[in-house]
Design a protein that fits this description.
- By secondary structure, the chain is mostly beta strands.
- It has 3 helices and 29 strands.
- Helices cover 11% and strands 62% of the residues.
- The two termini are 65 Å apart.
């Protein structure tokens, strides 16, 4: 409780100082504003902006005008009226030439009167200026270093430490933890975003954890954990979710139901993994001890791919079956591969079903870059939902009954596949 009270006191004190600063040079500022609106005044205004956003972080205004006694008196009076609020004030007069220089917390003003010309220069630096802190709506300027805790938190510039609220937004870079329902950083983030929707426009160094995570235009270094993870450029790390998408390369892994990447150095784990460049895609026709016709579609990377398979046997009560499996291509030489696969197959029926859980140990030979043949043994656990043994293999090396509903069958198969 004491820490919270102390934080509130500090923020209110800083906010009070900011309000005081806003009126510190009100007479000088009003005078300059009046000059800027006069057509006869020669002005030179320079504005510098934060990257990506159009927020001014520095401003320089130069005004030059022909001198007159009334104008000189007006300007010097405006300066002197704000002198008590200045951090530093200098006034010099020599040989009829007047020089005045005032420094405030975020701005400086100079005035010279020489050669019948008046010159005024205003420099404003908005970095570090507090906007509003109410613990409900919080709006702060660049380099505000205290945590933002409220319903809506906005940093106009960069921010570090903590943003905790329903909506958190940093318009440039963020370093620390953003936690809320919607978290957005419009440039780079180093740290953690955790919420329902997390967005980083440019670079992520750290982690995003939420329902939808997205990061942008440069290589990311970290991890995304969520239902949908999207990266425009690439990532050195991992994506873990239901749908993972990367427009560039991945040096790491994707773990999800559906994975997509342009290129990957590592292994994607999922029901469907699509790798645009360097991935593995094949259509395979095979024969085994249970089904004389099996058509499979395989996709992923050679180290780990997934596949779906449709099977047909005219002699079975339920002729059609569908299966899903995982496999790997492990090179033995330039032409030969050891090709282990795990597959679960089930007849398409509501009753009298047969379920097959198989391990296949194929040896695969590359006939050409796009054509391969394979052959090898298989070990299958067979489960019948009825005790009658109504499904029988066409051939078997071993056919062992465990109980009326379970069997262990050792067989073999051959296959031919086309890669594309």
């Amino acid at each position: 409780m004491k820490k919270i009270s102390l934080l509130i006191a500090i923020i209110l004190l800083l906010a009070g100082n900011s309000a005081k600063e806003a009126f510190a040079q009100e007479n000088i500022r009003a005078m300059i504003k009046n000059f800027e609106n006069m057509d006869v005044i020669e002005t030179d205004i320079v504005r510098n902006h934060f990257p990506i956003i159009k927020k001014i972080n520095r401003s320089t205004t130069k005004i030059q005008i022909a001198s007159s006694p009334d104008l000189e008196q007006q300007i010097e009076e405006a300066f002197r009226q704000d002198s008590e609020n200045a951090i530093h004030a200098t006034e010099q007069k020599k040989d009829g030439k007047v020089y005045m220089f005032y420094r405030f917390r975020y701005s400086t003003y100079s005035y010279t009167n020489s050669n019948d010309m008046i010159n005024i220069v205003e420099n404003i630096d908005t970095k570090g200026r507090i906007g509003l802190y109410t613990f409900f709506f919080n709006v702060v300027q660049d380099d505000f270093r205290f945590p933002l805790i409220g319903f809506v938190n906005t940093a106009i510039g960069s921010h570090q430490s903590l943003q905790a609220g329903f909506i958190n937004t940093t318009l440039v870079d963020f370093y620390g933890v953003q936690t809320g329902f919607v978290n957005s950083t419009l440039n780079d983030i180093a740290g953690l975003q955790t919420g329902y929707v997390n967005t980083t426009i440019n670079e992520l160094k750290g982690a995003q954890m939420g329902f939808v995570n997205s990061a942008g235009f440069s290589m990311q270094k970290g991890v995304q954990v969520g239902f949908v993870n999207m990266i425009r450029k690439g990532i050195k790390g991992a994506q873990i979710g239901f749908v993972n998408m990367t427009g560039g390369s991945i040096s790491g892994s994707q773990i999800g139901f559906v994975n997509y990447a342009d290129t990957i150095t590592g292994v994607p784990f999922g029901f469907l993994s699509i790798v645009k460049k360097g991935g593995y895609r094949a259509i395979e026709l095979s024969v085994n001890e249970w089904y004389p016709v099996n058509l499979s579609f395989k996709i992923g990377v050679p180290k780990l791919y997934s596949f779906v398979r449709g099977s047909y046997n005219a002699d079975f009560e339920k002729r059609f079956a569908i299966g899903y499996g995982l496999g790997s291509l492990l090179p033995v030489s330039k032409k030969f591969y050891f090709n282990p696969e795990l597959i679960s197959t089930q007849t398409i029926s509501k009753d009298n079903q047969m379920q097959l859980q198989s391990f296949v140990g194929n040896i695969r030979y590359k006939l050409s870059p796009n054509l391969q043949i394979a052959a090898g043994p298989s070990v299958t656990h067979v489960y019948m939902d009825k005790s009658e043994y109504s499904y029988k293999p066409m051939y078997a090396i071993v056919n062992h009954q465990i109980n009326p509903k379970n069997r262990l069958v050792v067989g073999a198969g051959v296959a031919i596949s086309v890669n594309f």
